[in-house]
Structure formats: structure tokens, C-alpha cells
TrEMBL record:
Catalytic activity: holo-[ACP] + malonyl-CoA = malonyl-[ACP] + CoA
Protein name (database record): [acyl-carrier-protein] S-malonyltransferase
Enzyme class: transferase
InterPro entries the record matches: Ac_transferase_dom_sf, Acyl_transferase_dom, Acyl_Trfase/lysoPLipase, Mal-CoA-ACP_Trans/PKS_FabD, Malonyl_CoA-ACP_transAc, Malonyl_transacylase_ACP-bd
Gene3D superfamilies hit by this protein: Malonyl-CoA ACP transacylase, ACP-binding, Malonyl-Coenzyme A Acyl Carrier Protein, domain 2
Annotated source species: Stentor coeruleus
Pfam families to which the protein is assigned, alphabetical: Acyl_transf_1
Keywords annotated in UniProt: Acyltransferase, Transferase
Domain of life the protein comes from: Eukaryota
């Protein structure tokens, strides 16, 4: 029997109307009500699912709203498959999420409740933004290998912050930090290595040392909630190794914020353990595309990416 992997996306897939994909099902409104009830903050209580349905888009795109909205959307996709087809956690060998998706994986694995999960996602997003208020920031995707990017970082002198924030596949590395420093490195790579770069439309420089205040806040919040062992191993973004126990999960979710999101390494781990079917629970097929590219680059046969994008 094929070993299967759950994929959960991170920020960037939000869109107005994302709460209505499964509107005809009774459980859809039940989950959305639980989400709204759990967010007892004056600025957001009973507003998140309205934002997901009606917008405005510019508010939904704010990190503090986008992150719990994306987690909620993935939970709804998972609920649909479990209700309609009897899919259970035991059907999968691993869960692999990208950035925020690691938090979602912990909710689906039963380590964290839906209510605590969306609260963590909200606090995570808000704390990330607050950590860099007043700073000019940048995240840039570089279509080059990790080796080239690390070589460039060693060749160029810069004053601010520029770090590898993620490795998505063999030829895509994301840089994060202060605008001048990231632009300097990206321009150097573009000029000297003749590869394209793309600036990302984000409001904070995720997965770098500038996010330490957000990591410190999440560490405190995790001690306030119940964290159980996960029903399936969750691949840590920071180490690319599975975590299961409460202590492992809490450490990984904190490290997730300041360390690079190593999706490529996570894929390499599950591939090396015989996994051959990958299913994404979310919209826009981002991770499905990355997984397919990684599989194609390795010329692996008999592997499939099953996109659940209803």
C-alpha cells in the first residue's frame, strides 16, 4: 500500500469567498462558528469568517487575518474529505506543512484544538507584523540553488539583515530581511549568476532573526494551551524531521518562526521513507506544484500528487 503525505499550505492562498467553498454542508457553519467564538479579541471577534466571505481583500491580506483564515480553510477541506470519503489521520504516514501549514498539521493531527490553533495563528501573524513595525523589509524568491545563494551571501558585505528564509525546491530559495540588504544580495545574484528573482508581496520578513519577538510570544502562548501528542508525525519546518510528542511539537512551532521553511528537505525526508502519494488540503495548488517539481527533478517514477482543491 502506498505511503501517503498530507500537505498544508502557508500564507498567500487567501481570497475573498474562501469560507463558502463548502457552505451547503452543516458542519461548515459549525466549524466557522467555533473559529469566530474562539477569537475573543475585540478587533477580530466574530469578524474573521465575515472577512473570509466578504472581504475587503486588503484587510484579509493582513498577516494577522490571513493566517487564521488559511488555517480555517485547510480545516474545512480536511473535514470535507473525512465526512465524504471517510479519510482519517491513520490513512497518512506524515503531515508536511509550509510555514503556517505546520501549525495546521498539528491541528489536523489532534495535537492542538481548532480553537487554540486559530488563536495561535492570529497571534503568530500579529506578532510577526509588530516585530518589524517601522522597518523597511523585503522577501525575495531567487530562482537558483541553495549553493549559489549561500555563496553570494558569503561574497557580499551588507549591514542589515538578509537570510535564507526558505528552500522550496532545487532552484528556488527565498531571502528575507531588511530591504536594502535583500535587494543588494538579490541584485548581485541576478547579475553574476544570470538567474531571475522575484520580490514577494508581504508585510513582514518571515523566517529570519527579525521574527524573534514573535517566536518569544508564541513560546509563551504555547504554555497556556493543551498540546497533545499528534496522531501522525508532523514534519518540522526547522529540522525536516518528524515531531510527535508535546515537547517536540512546541519546540518546533517556536523554531518555525525564526528558522527557514525547509520544504525541499521535508520532501526529501518523506520520499526517503517510501512515501509516494501527496495530497494538498487548501486552495491554489501551491505545494502541489512544488511537490511535483521536486519529484520531476529527481526523475522518480510511480509517485503522484493528488490535489484536493474543491
Amino acid at each position: 500500500m502506498s505511503k501517503r503525505v498530507l500537505l498544508f499550505p502557508g500564507q498567500g492562498i487567501q481570497f475573498v469567498g474562501m469560507a463558502d467553498t463548502f457552505a451547503k454542508f452543516k458542519w461548515n457553519s459549525e466549524i466557522l462558528n467555533r473559529v469566530d467564538d474562539s477569537l475573543g479579541f475585540p478587533v477580530i471577534s466574530n469578524q474573521l469568517t465575515k472577512l473570509m466571505r466578504e472581504g475587503p481583500e486588503e484587510q484579509l491580506n493582513l498577516t494577522e487575518y490571513a493566517q487564521p483564515a488559511i488555517m480555517t480553510s485547510s480545516i474545512l477541506h480536511w473535514k470535507y474529505m473525512s465526512e465524504m470519503y471517510g479519510i482519517m489521520e491513520s490513512s497518512f504516514s506524515f503531515a508536511l506543512g509550509h510555514s503556517l501549514g505546520e501549525y495546521t498539521a498539528c491541528v489536523i493531527g489532534g495535537a492542538i484544538s481548532i480553537e487554540d490553533g486559530v488563536k495561535l495563528a492570529y497571534i503568530r501573524g500579529k506578532s510577526m507584523q509588530e516585530a518589524v513595525n517601522g522597518l523597511s523589509i523585503r522577501m525575495t524568491a531567487v530562482m537558483a540553488s541553495e549553493a549559489i545563494v549561500r555563496k553570494a551571501l558569503s561574497e557580499v558585505t551588507f549591514d542589515g539583515t538578509c537570510e535564507i528564509a526558505g528552500i522550496n525546491h532545487d532552484r528556488q530559495v527565498v531571502l528575507s530581511g531588511t530591504r536594502d540588504s535583500v535587494d543588494l544580495i538579490a541584485d548581485y545574484i541576478k547579475k553574476h549568476y544570470k538567474v531571475p528573482v522575484k520580490h514577494l508581496n508581504v508585510s513582514a520578513p518571515f523566517h529570519c532573526k527579525l521574527m524573534k519577538p514573535a517566536a518569544d510570544r508564541i513560546k509563551i502562548e504555547l504554555e497556556k494551551i493543551t498540546v497533545l501528542s499528534s496522531k501522525l508525525p508532523v514534519i518540522s519546518n526547522a529540522t525536516s524531521l518528524p515531531v510527535v510528542t508535546p515537547d517536540e511539537i512546541k519546540k518546533s512551532l517556536v523554531d518555525n518562526i525564526v528558522n527557514p521553511a525547509m520544504f525541499l528537505r521535508g520532501m526529501e525526508y518523506v520520499l526517503s521513507h517510501g512515501c509516494s502519494l501527496f495530497t494538498e488540503y487548501g486552495s491554489k495548488k501551491i505545494l502541489s506544484g512544488l511537490a511535483s517539481k521536486i519529484i520531476q527533478d529527481r526523475k522518480l517514477d510511480g509517485l503522484a500528487v493528488d490535489i484536493h482543491d474543491k
